[in-house]
Design goal:
Mean pLDDT: 94
CATH architecture of one domain: 7 Propeller
CATH superfamily of one domain: YVTN repeat-like/Quinoprotein amine dehydrogenase
Helix content: under 10%
Low-confidence stretches: 1-23
Shape: globular
Radius of gyration: 23 Å
CATH topology of one domain: Methylamine Dehydrogenase, Chain H
Strand content: 35-45%
CATH class of one domain: Mainly Beta
Structural class: mainly beta
Distance between the termini: 51 Å
Length: 588
């Protein structure tokens, strides 16, 4: 098949990388061992999302998102962590700024200064970063930023705080669509006094009328409804390189990374990540959620990596970026658009549900009762996938992106779709990001390993017990990620949001990363959806303990800072509302 230039560029990023070999030594170099956990007793309402650890007080700070609070956990004894206090960020924003705040989204700490990202009550309005003194939990100050501060992190030297301002549109209709931004805050924190200077970086120069529009990389995914480039780009997560000179920002929906020069406070460039070829050996997937078996096969799909959490590691003087390739779509934001508006935006109008969407099952795309655009030009030509087509054996339960497939699915420019673009990579990847090169991808490891452990019960969702519930969507959905150095070797810890558990890889040789361990405390005999009891405030309480569910945020703590004197991992589990501590044992 002759590929057009753009498609060759997109697919080539996977071909130059290395695929993982699923192999585990008899004696792994490290091993995660469960310690204690703190249970908020709140089920499936984001009661334990992002976590951080204060070296001074030995307290863990946990984002209790929807409450607008930060839970403070005494973790001097990681076998018996206890709730010490809660910071009510919402109340403090009201008290000190007279503004209405919404959910807390992220937290980080440096030298006793705690930073919290919190969105406005109306999510499309400007949010804030609030600062606290960890010694006495007192409010220090707050600074107004752009819309939806989603993630923040201090540089390793504590001199700057970098904030991803996601700027999501209003739900359902895109009536309000703020610009995505990155804020760089210079920090002067001495003697418990804070001086901070905020610099906000936007992407307006990359708009069609902007002076940097021609710098946009080929393969950048742009599909926001009537959105400019600066509205379409939605910063999600930030990693800082080894010498604090650059910030790497994941633009999840856009399948790209923005590189920020922290010295000049300028967006250096944007790197498109390309697509994952699921026809390639080692990239098999299970896309059938109804066949009651774990069956991984090569399929004519191109995976859009769309990383959520990312981390930067320095190995032999090279900055490598590690990405958890979760995937995301825009269906929530377009549901209320009319059929004409929907099709204008390259989405599709579901005739059964009477709403606009982007994620589409192949079987529905071949059903005129579900998918029948008003205009011929808006309809995908899926004749290759229909009866008699050369790709008609494709698993028809699989979800794909209508808008992205319409842009990138026709590889030979004959008007017919050759590949379907799916959300996420079902993997983690390692990139030499400065050279825009993939070094390693874990391929089909996550599904193979979980299938080996759970058989046909793999690819569960995180809030109910239903075998293969996520096979047709994003599989195990890797989301949380962190890295750590132990005994001179570098490890990646990746959380699987849906089925749960933690994947551990030794990435000391990035092109030859090796699987070390998969640990999941989830009890597969218990249906977590039985947690239906609500308290007086209407909060669903955790009555059925199915273990830790929905790992969302990781924090690696090395032995020098750890309360145990040895490295530990702290995990915030969004669905179970639990904060879990793990010892990391070494086998020298």
């Amino acid at each position: 098949m002759k590929l057009n230039l753009l498609t060759r560029i997109i697919i080539s990023s996977t071909l130059f990388g290395s695929l993982a070999t699923y192999a585990q030594t008899d004696t792994p170099s490290i091993q995660l061992v469960e310690a204690g956990r703190y249970q908020s007793n709140v089920f499936d309402q984001s009661a334990a999302e992002i976590v951080t650890f204060d070296k001074i007080t030995k307290h863990t700070f946990v984002v209790n998102a929807q409450s607008g609070k930060i839970d403070v956990i005494n973790s001097l004894d990681i076998d018996k962590p206890t709730l010490l206090d809660s910071l009510n960020i919402k109340e403090d924003i009201k008290k000190h700024l007279n503004k209405a705040a919404g959910a807390a989204n992220s937290v980080d700490v440096y030298n006793g200064l705690l930073a919290v990202a919190i969105e406005a009550q109306t999510k499309t309005d400007n949010g804030w970063v609030a600062f606290y003194n960890t010694k006495d939990l007192s409010f220090v100050s707050a600074y107004e930023l752009g819309a939806l501060p989603d993630m923040l992190t201090f540089t390793a030297n504590g001199k700057q705080l970098v904030v991803a301002l996601e700027g999501e549109p209003s739900v359902g209709n895109y009536q309000v669509d703020p610009e995505g931004e990155v804020a760089v805050i210079d920090i002067d924190w001495k003697n418990e006094n804070l001086n901070a200077t905020v610099t906000r970086l936007d992407f307006t120069d990359f708009n069609k009328t902007g002076k940097r529009y021609t710098e946009l990389p080929k393969g950048l995914m742009l599909n926001g409804y009537n959105a400019t480039v600066s509205q379409d780009l939605e910063p999600e997560y930030i990693a800082i390189n080894h010498d604090n000179s650059k910030a790497f920002v994941s633009l999840q929906e856009n399948n790209a990374i923005a590189i920020i020069d922290l010295t000049t406070k300028r967006i250096e460039r944007i790197v498109a990540l390309g697509l994952k070829d699921h026809m390639q050996k080692g990239n098999e997937i299970d896309g059938n959620d109804k066949d009651k078996q774990a069956l991984l096969t090569n399929q004519p799909f191109l995976g859009v990596y769309q990383p959520d959490s990312i981390a930067s590691v320095d190995i032999n003087g090279i900055d490598y970026l590690v990405t958890a390739n979760e995937g995301d779509d825009r269906s929530d934001w377009v549901a209320e658009l009319s059929q004409a508006e929907c099709e204008q935006g390259h989405f599709y109008y579901n005739l059964e549900d009477q709403e606009c969407a982007d994620d589409l099952k192949l079987k529905d795309a071949l059903d005129d009762k579900v998918y029948s655009p008003d205009t011929k030009s808006a309809k995908l030509d899926l004749s290759h996938f229909d009866k008699g087509g050369n790709l008609s054996a494709t698993v028809n339960r699989m979800n794909f992106s209508h808008s992205l497939t319409s842009q990138y699915g026709d590889l030979d420019n004959d008007g017919k779709v050759d590949r379907l673009l799916t959300f996420g990579g079902r993997s983690f990847s390692i990139w030499d990001i400065n050279n825009a090169t993939m070094i390693f991808d874990s391929g089909s490891d996550f599904e193979r390993i979980t299938a080996e452990k759970y058989g046909k019960n793999f690819n569960q969702s995180h809030n109910k017990l239903k075998a293969e519930n996520r096979s047709a969507k994003k599989g195990p959905e890797p989301e949380a990620l962190t890295t750590g150095v132990i005994d001179g070797r570098t490890y990646a810890f990746i959380g699987l949001e849906r089925i749960g558990g933690i994947m551990v890889y030794d990435i000391s040789e990035p092109s030859k990363a090796q699987f070390v361990q998969y640990l999941n405390s989830r009890d597969m005999s218990v249906d977590p959806s039985d947690n239906k009891q609500k308290n007086a405030q209407g909060v669903t309480t955790y009555q059925i303990d199915a273990g830790d569910l929905g790992p969302e945020g990781f924090k690696f703590i090395d032995g020098k800072a750890s309360p145990t004197g040895a490295p530990i991992l702290v995990v915030g589990n969004e669905v179970s509302g639990t904060t879990r501590y793990y010892r990391i044992q070494t086998n020298k």
